[in-house]
Amino acid sequence: MTEEHTRPLKFAVIGAGPAGFYAAAQLLSGKAIEGEVRVDLFDRLPTPYGLVRFGVAPDHPKIKSVIKVYDKVAAKDGFRYFGGVEVGKDVQHDEVASRYDAVIYTTGASHDRRLGIPGEDLPGSVAATDFVAWYNGHPDAKDLTFDLSSKRAVVIGNGNVAVDVARMLALTPTELAVTDTADHAIDALSNSEIEEILVVGRRGLAQAAFTNPELRELGELEDADIIVSPEDVDLDEGSKNWLNRDGADAREQKNVDIATEYSTRTPTGKKRKIILRFLASPVKLIGTDRVEGIELVKNELVADDDGWLSARPTTETETIQTGLVLRSIGYRGRPLPGVPFDEQRATINNLDGRVIDLQTGDPIPGLYTAGWIKRGPSGIIGTNKKCANDTIAELAADHQAGKLPTPTDQSDIADLIAERVPDHVDYPGWQRIDAHERALGEPQGRPRVKLVDTDEMTKIAHQTAGATS
Ligand SMILES: Cc1cc2nc3c(=O)[nH]c(=O)nc-3n(C[C@H](O)[C@H](O)[C@H](O)COP(=O)(O)OP(=O)(O)OC[C@H]3O[C@@H](n4cnc5c(N)ncnc54)[C@H](O)[C@@H]3O)c2cc1C
Ligand SMILES: NC(=O)c1ccc[n+]([C@@H]2O[C@H](COP(=O)([O-])OP(=O)(O)OC[C@H]3O[C@@H](n4cnc5c(N)ncnc54)[C@H](OP(=O)(O)O)[C@@H]3O)[C@@H](O)[C@H]2O)c1
User: Fold this and answer.
1) What is the bridge-based pairing of β-strands 125-127 and 324-327?
2) Most buried residue, 75, 80, 204, 256, by most Cβ within 10 Å?
3) How far is CA 266 from the centre of its chain?
4) What is the predicted pLDDT for the residue at 3?
5) Distance 125 CA to ligand 2 centre (A)
6) What is the per-residue DSSP string for 286-298?
């Protein structure tokens, strides 16, 4: 065997969310690639886990237990973590690519989609992406403030993020107190004056993207009634056909059943109300210096030739007073310098995980992608496992076929990073942050108290045993 064949293969995975960890796991598993493999996992933040830490709702702690799986990956031989290192800023794509046999981008989609309506940029009009990042203690969102003094909040969108946001606005101080919601958000949400949370879907109940447990949970809140009008559960013919179509998703009928039960409930006088409204779209946000209201247009459903139902505006409009509009209409990926980007889909330009050159249409040797930045912003944590495994299967096939490029720079990226980001955080450093946060949470009966400042995180990460903060 030549030296080339005996040397370890080196892979860089950029983004330490679920997709990044599942890609690293598969590369290190010995199932896809034989022989010695080394994986360096990078994240722009000191903390790993992506949206498991900064997306998943704080009142859903069980879902976050998936991090145990990721910690096992990090404990494997050949794994290194470079936290606090942003590819495209601290180190460039070419500097990474030249040192590895392949690079896998798993950078997620953390930005917001726009409604494109007048008034969208008024204060009081908030992207759910920002609100979620804020209550979850994302360092980028730590200085945001939200005015929660309005009696009514309007949430636009019918996905699970809209449900998370509505529920977080409805939780009581007691419900919040036992979570790892960022302290600044617990303070603000506990003093919120919001009494009504109106969740608005552009299509009908049968087309809502919520999953059943999430919709059900809205009916089980300690101090919020759920309200659905009987008209909204009285489905039009198009929706009935939709539910009975070939290959219909059982989740949709179940959502209708859950909401139908809600429509029979009498409000019990709880402090807050969550109202679900369907077949309405925002036309404009009204206000001079800040949001004072929202104009909604009533929609009707129209089927295309394939039976797909879209929302079409009617001429019927109404204005609703509100000081807070949360736009929860989906996340959006961002381009990375030096990496081909499909602007329309807002994903890295790829075919089955192989990154494709925009000019030639050919795969770029040694460049791959997985997770939300490959597929777009949909799917639960587990979806990213299959997605990452599929990508690694393509990578392994390319390796078998001798199509992976040989690294042109034999130096260790750790030396470059030591120069550029001397206080970057390795996995033991993250584990010190983790232990610190858990210790802060323990006396309060909380899973952790999140640090929200990267300087503070870095300081804790570099503390030697026995030192105090
Ligand atoms: C609000 C919300 C709640 C959710 N709740 C649930 C839930 O309860 N259950 C469930 O199963 N799924 C949930 N999901 C879905 C789940 O979080 C996603 O499927 C999953 O996180 C996507 O994984 P990813 O690795 O592609 O992206 P992410 O999780 O976004 O990870 C991407 C990582 O890349 C890093 N990064 C970005 N750019 C760079 C760069 N240039 N250099 C280095 N690092 C970079 C980011 O810091 C981040 O850590 C939720 C999603 C959202 C938005
Ligand atoms: N507990 C959990 O498991 C959990 C929690 C949170 C998130 N997630 C997952 O994370 C992913 C992202 O969730 P998400 O809620 O951001 O996205 P999503 O599920 O794609 O929902 C987006 C919603 O926004 C609506 N929308 C899009 N453009 C709109 C516009 N211009 N005007 C009005 N409404 C518009 C969509 O309506 P149309 O259907 O009409 O397009 C849809 O109702 C999903 O896969 C979700 O399941 C899971």
Assistant:
1) parallel
2) 204
3) 35
4) 46
5) 18
6) E-SSS--EEEEEE
pLDDT at 224 over 80: yes
Residue ranges and CATH numbers for the domains of the chain are: 3-110+333-424 (3.40.50.720), 113-330 (3.50.50.60)
Q: Is 163 in the pocket of ligand 1 (CB under 6 A)?
A: no
Q: What SS3 class is residue 227?
A: strand
| Tokens coding 198 | 């109106």
Percent of the chain clearing pLDDT 70 (strictly above):
98
Q: What is the pLDDT of residues 152-197, one digit of tens each?
A: 999 999 999 999 999 999 999 999 999 999 999 999 999 999 999 9
User: Which DSSP symbol is given to 80?
Assistant: E
Give the C-alpha distances (Å, rounded to integers) separating 57 from 61, 389, 415: 8, 26, 37
CA of 20 to the centre of ligand 1 (A): 10
CB count within 10 Å of CB 140 equals: 15
Is the pLDDT score of 352 beyond 90? yes
- Positive or negative, the CA dihedral 405, 410, 412, 413 is negative
Percent of the chain past pLDDT 90, that is, above it, reads 96
- β partners of residue 354: 351, 368
Question: Is there a contact between 424 and 84 (Cβ–Cβ < 8 Å)?
Answer: yes
Report which DSSP code applies to 409.
-
Q: Which of 73, 107, 135 to mutate to test the pocket of ligand 1 (most atoms within 8 A of CB)?
A: 107
Three-state secondary structure call for residue 454: helix
Q: Which residues contact 419 (CB under 8 A, 6 or more apart)?
A: none
